[in-house]
Design goal:
three-stranded parallel sheet; 3 domains; Rossmann fold; mainly alpha; elongated; 3 strands
């Protein structure tokens, strides 16, 4: 047994050892992007895994309006989902401890109306945040690069810039 079969078997065994019937775990096949995104829209809550959290999949979940719950870690790989949630103006879905993560997941599972409210807030917040605003990203990147080029022509070597501080400068 190798690859996906081993992965699924291990998770089923672990579930069973923890009181969850093996057949309650459903493993979805790989799909093309549009089908994958459509499938994610059907979820109620995306539970980010740790120690290495979700990256593109977490971004995909938020893009389609699926609330994401994460445990903020101490490494880059374990903090991506938290960064996405902060940018999406949903910081209340970032937990600092495993206990808080588990408690919030259970709380949300027991309150479908709260999940629906989170989904609505997420959909509303995405239009006003830079997370998926490609045009604003392009404009900010161009502004930042133009500033860096101008500084370099003057011989300056500024390491960090904030585009928000450059607007109107």
């Amino acid at each position: 047994m190798a690859g996906r079969e081993l992965y699924e078997s291990t998770l089923r065994r672990y579930a069973e050892e923890n009181g969850v019937a093996r057949d309650r775990l459903i493993f979805a096949p790989r799909l093309e992007l549009e089908q994958h995104l459509a499938r994610q829209r059907c979820g109620d809550l995306f539970l980010d895994h740790f120690v290495c959290g979700a990256h593109t999949t977490a971004s995909d979940a938020l893009r389609v309006g699926l609330p994401l719950l994460t445990l903020k870690g101490t490494t880059f790989a374990s903090r991506v989902a938290a960064s996405l949630l902060n940018t999406a103006a949903m910081p209340e879905l970032i937990c600092d401890t495993k206990e808080a993560y588990e408690a919030l997941a259970i709380d949300l599972a027991r309150q479908p109306e709260r999940l629906l409210a989170l989904r609505s807030r997420l959909a509303a917040s995405l239009s006003g945040t830079p997370l998926f605003n490609v045009h604003q990203f392009r404009t900010d990147l161009e502004t930042g690069l133009a500033h860096i080029a101008a500084e370099a022509r003057r011989g300056a070597r500024k390491k960090n810039i904030r585009v928000s501080e450059l607007v109107g400068a």
